[in-house]
TrEMBL record:
<protein>
    <submittedName>
        <fullName>Polyketide cyclase</fullName>
    </submittedName>
</protein>
<dbReference type="InterPro" id="IPR013538">
    <property type="entry name" value="ASHA1/2-like_C"/>
</dbReference>
<dbReference type="Pfam" id="PF08327">
    <property type="entry name" value="AHSA1"/>
</dbReference>
<dbReference type="InterPro" id="IPR023393">
    <property type="entry name" value="START-like_dom_sf"/>
</dbReference>
<feature type="domain" description="Activator of Hsp90 ATPase homologue 1/2-like C-terminal">
    <location>
        <begin position="39"/>
        <end position="175"/>
    </location>
</feature>
<comment type="similarity">
    <text>Belongs to the AHA1 family.</text>
</comment>
Length: 346
């Protein structure tokens, strides 16, 4: 019994000594500054920070996990935008907000990790160094920690700096368009609904009507992909870096019909003269889209499309065509890897 009392006294003394050392020698919160430069103009850099959908794709805090799930909340960009995240594997989660924005100059983030009531405050200042160079400066203020948790402050700054270093490498790859296709695919967050602004496109392709029974539609899509791809690559002599991903355009809810009419094509940089009347151009105007990435059987895409339509109805938005962009070329007997976009408007 006496032995346990001695052990208890020692434990109490150790805990007391630890608490005292934390109280007198370790700050309850940390403030530090990190500065970097990137060789890209302010307009391109700032958009990677104030659009949280862009931000989470290159920021190592989010992009390093393959299991993290992220939800994005309106207005999706700038002051008032927000995300919530959860990683089932690491059991980490939290919320992030943009509380203030001065375009191309400053941003203020609030990051709530796990169930902490007090956020980490991150102010980011952007300075134009030259037409092709931008300085980025982070001012970080961590939340107050209890005495027993305060030891975390020994490595908080190093951990944040390491994350910034990895993130800057990712950002340079994104801005320089040097990310390999495999890395791009690995960064995609499947089954997460997002909002994107689609730029104007000029698509060369074919108008088609096909049966919607069983796998007849997908076989028809594969056939027309080969037809269009052969024309673009062989007849027109276009290389891979001159064209976009193949895309199918159709009515959002015609997956219920016995016969489906669609336009299948490949985006080109500009409209050119063609002699074959089997092919035509379709111009796609800039749109706001609800987007979801999907991977699986082609028939399974219906659930993803319905999810986009339900989101539009919930937000009281009208919707138009659905765009099915094939990240991996469609092939018979294989699953699809695609980006599904629903154009929406008031």
């Amino acid at each position: 019994m006496r032995f346990f009392k001695i052990i208890a006294v020692i434990v109490v003394l150790l805990v007391g000594a630890y608490a005292a050392s934390m109280y007198y020698f370790v700050d309850e919160s940390k403030e530090f500054t990190i500065e970097k430069e990137v060789d890209y103009p302010i307009e391109k850099v700032f958009n990677q920070f104030n659009n949280l959908q862009n931000f989470t794709r290159w920021n190592n805090f989010f992009s390093s996990s393959k299991t993290i799930e992220i939800d994005y909340y309106s207005p999706y960009e700038g002051q008032g935008s927000a995300i919530s995240y959860n990683d089932p594997k690491s059991e980490d989660g939290g919320e992030m907000f943009i509380r203030y924005e001065n375009p191309n100059k400053t941003l203020r983030y609030q990051l709530f990790e796990d169930e902490d009531e007090n956020p980490t405050l991150i102010d980011v200042k952007f300075t134009v160094v030259s037409a092709e160079k931008t300085k980025i400066k982070w001012f970080v203020h961590t939340p107050k920690l209890s005495l027993l948790s305060r030891a975390q402050n020994f490595w908080t700054e190093d951990k944040f700096a390491e994350n910034i270093n990895k993130s800057m490498l990712n950002l340079k790859n994104v801005l320089g368009n040097k990310v390999e296709k495999d890395n791009q695919l690995a960064a995609i967050k499947y089954d997460s609904l997002m909002v994107e602004k689609e730029e104007e496109k000029m698509i060369l392709g074919v108008n088609v009507s096909a049966s919607n029974k069983k796998d007849a539609l997908y076989k028809n899509i594969v056939m027309n992909y080969n037809k269009v791809n052969n024309f673009v690559s062989m007849d027109l002599g276009k290389k891979n870096d001159e064209v976009g991903y193949p895309v199918l355009i159709t009515d959002a809810d015609n997956f219920k019909d016995n016969e489906v009419s669609y336009f299948f094509g490949i985006p080109l940089s500009k409209k050119i003269g063609i002699a074959d009347n089997n092919f035509s151009f379709r111009s796609v105007s800039p749109t706001e889209n609800y987007v979801i990435y999907y991977k699986g059987s082609y028939a399974g895409r219906v659930k993803a499309i319905q999810q986009l339509m339900q989101k539009a109805k919930k937000d009281e938005m009208r919707y138009g065509d659905v765009y099915q962009m094939f990240i991996e070329s469609p092939a018979e007997g294989q699953d699809v890897n695609m980006k599904i976009s629903l154009s929406v408007y008031r």
